[in-house]
Amino acid sequence: MQWLDAIVQGVLLGGMYAQYALGMALMFGVMRIVNIAHGDVMILLSLIAVSLAGVLPLGNVGLVLVIVPIAVGLGWLLQKFILNRVVGADPLPSLIATFGLSIALQNLMLEIWSADTRSLPNSDIASASFQIGPIYLGLLPVIVLLCAFCLTGGLDAVLRYTRFGRGLRAAAADTEAAAMTGVDPKRIYATATAIAVGILGLAAIFAALRATVSPSDGSAQLIYAFEAVIIGGMGSVWGAFIGSMVLGVAQAVGLRIDPGLGILFGHLVFLLVLATRPEGIMARKK
Amino acid sequence: MTLEINPKSYVDRRSLLKGLAAVTAATIALPHAARAQNAKTIKIGMISPMTGPLSLFGETDEYTAAKIMELVADGIEVNGETYNIEILMRDAQSNPNRAAELAGDLILNDEVSLMLPASTTDINNPTADQCELYGVPCISSNSPWQAFVMPRGGAENPFMWTYHFFWGLEDVLGTFTGMWRSIDTNGKVGMLFPRNADGETWGNEEYGLPSAVREAGFEAFAPSMFEPRTNDFSAQISEFKNNNCEIVGGITYVADLKTFITQCKQQNYTPKVVTVAAALLFPSGIEAMGELGEGMSSEVWWTPAFPFTSSLTGQTSQEIADGWGEDTGKQWTQPLGYSHALWEVILDTLKRSSDPQDRDANREALAATNLDTLVGNINFADGPHPNICKTPIFGGQWVEGEDWPFDLKIVDNTLYPDVLEPDTAMKPLDWS
């Protein structure tokens, strides 16, 4: 029973990682942009949400409706004015640009919000739970998991069946050939980053409800997003979702074996996947 | 009197805005005529975590240094001679390696006569090590004395140059158990320690909390240390639940505590008492807990209710706290009292020194300190270790506040009953 509980809690934890990983799957997995500032952008959105919650009586749903459009706009600007200038066959310039952006964002946030730890006012939803047999399921983690599931399905469908999705995959595969066939890679990339950061906006609100945020927290969660994408397989949106579940369950099971080992277990599973199946669990056949 | 903030070419967040403002203000306040012409200058190095995760400690250091600057604007008089004071303030960015580097630079290039690594183990220890190496008197605070002495190998050989005043783990234990005894529980304690420098010290099986808690008659359950910023505490919660722990104690940071408490509520685990060090020190930490934060308890080492007054300004603790509230618009925090007391000790040392520009003379004066400060009497003669002086500690509980969301009330004075009376009795947590 203890192990069943560990797996259930691990899947719920995976839901949170999946929200971090989806945007990463799009940027890193599909577009091959290594965005080091991924975590910092999320913290920025969380802090904006916390500040907004202090002045506007929006409620959590209202907050989502405000923050996600801000996030979409931010993502678009990020790609348009920074990443589009450095993106190309060589992954290094975008890596360096986002590394610099990460440092700049952290210090900007320190200047504006100071180092205080903040969180959204603890509404009932964050601590509510329901019981199935001997297992307690937190309401918020379940909502997070469902949101992650729907977002994954939606994003996968967009990539597969829409004109934009085809354009994005084409531009990612061969930018010049795609441009010759009438796709505007820079515009497509800007839209894709807008979507990726938009998802992060949702994750940001959940993160601020669930735990606390402070300006230097961004990089701590970044690593899980990277790992989830790589475990799942580059380029596969469902892969990122499955990768997050694997990571979450590995951590939760590791924690039950010894509370000091949980995070290590996650990393070990990641290394195991890299060693035995480096293309990832769900990677398409070449 | 000059305050120099990072005069090198690098620009940090504060040197542009606040730093420039502070320096400008200081210059305006000090027309050149008021400065002692041709007077000698005493250089004091100050290293503080002004940015980064520990910056809540650095916040009061920076504020207090500016206040002290105003105070000694005309210099200080030692043995009939007037000296200008120059404070060289450096930001360690909460990074121990950087603190060591800055300390070396201040000692070798700026030739400071005295060093002040203001707060936290991560900044104190590397700075103090450099001071020990190069022979510079150094005074620090804001970390348990074991964390200052043990990791630096001071247990067998006392330090020559570095002095520290604060409480120790034995005191925090006495305070924690004092609070726990005042509540009706089954005496079973679940303990949380992170896997970092603090967690290793506090959770140490030899001199840390778990064994001491057992000796004090409680039953302690300490799962192995967790990685800071763990996202899932269900393993610890299920262990505490299975053992029916009605008390949760230890040391955590705010982010981890919030995750833990939210999951406790989700998992229907409702301990009567949650007493943790570190996370609950600062008002912003307790505010992050939201409603669940009310009733949580922590150690208290300075509050506006402290009965001592400043040897520099004669202000009471309440007046210092009020000044902070007016100047910053924020609620007082505990390091404020210690930031002030450190400067009391420094200026007192310099005034008693036979030659305040000489490191040896300053060391002798520092070692002979016997001063009543804002946080109590500082005297290294009768501490638990030759370089240590212990200061008072109490148990406090956060309750719904009047001017601020939460107020910290003293609920236990087991160790220092003469200093302060408790404000109220401790109450069990209300989880509904």
From TrEMBL, chain A:
Principal localisation: membrane
Parts of the chain that traverse the membrane:
6-29, 41-58, 95-115, 135-159, 188-209, 221-247, 259-276
Task: Tell me where on the tree of life, at the top rank, the source sits.
Answer: Bacteria
Q: Name one GO molecular function term.
A: transmembrane transporter activity
Membrane-related topology note: Multi-pass membrane protein
Q: Where in the cell is it found?
A: Cell membrane
List keywords of the entry alphabetically.
Amino-acid transport, Cell membrane, Membrane, Transmembrane, Transmembrane helix, Transport
Q: Which GO terms describe its biological process?
A: amino acid transport
Pfam families named among the record's database cross-references: BPD_transp_2
A GO cellular component annotation here is: plasma membrane
UniProt lists the family membership as follows:
Belongs to the binding-protein-dependent transport system permease family. LivHM subfamily.
UniProt protein name: Branched-chain amino acid transport system permease protein
Automatic annotation (TrEMBL), chain B:
One of the GO biological process terms: amino acid transport
Does the UniProt entry include the keyword Transferase? Answer: no
Taxonomic superkingdom: Bacteria
* One Pfam short name: Peripla_BP_6
Q: Which UniProt keywords apply?
A: Amino-acid transport, Signal, Transport
Q: Which PROSITE patterns match?
A: TAT (PS51318)
Q: What region holds the Leucine-binding protein domain? A: 41-386
Q: Is the keyword Signal assigned to this protein?
A: yes
Name the SUPFAM superfamilies for this protein.
Answer: Periplasmic binding protein-like I (SSF53822)
Q: What family is reported?
A: Belongs to the leucine-binding protein family.
PANTHER family given in the database record: LEUCINE-SPECIFIC-BINDING PROTEIN (PTHR30483), PERIPLASMIC BINDING PROTEIN OF ABC TRANSPORTER FOR NATURAL AMINO ACIDS (PTHR30483:SF6)
Would you tell me the protein name for this molecule?
Branched-chain amino acid transport system substrate-binding protein
Question: What organism does the UniProt record list as the source?
Answer: Sagittula marina
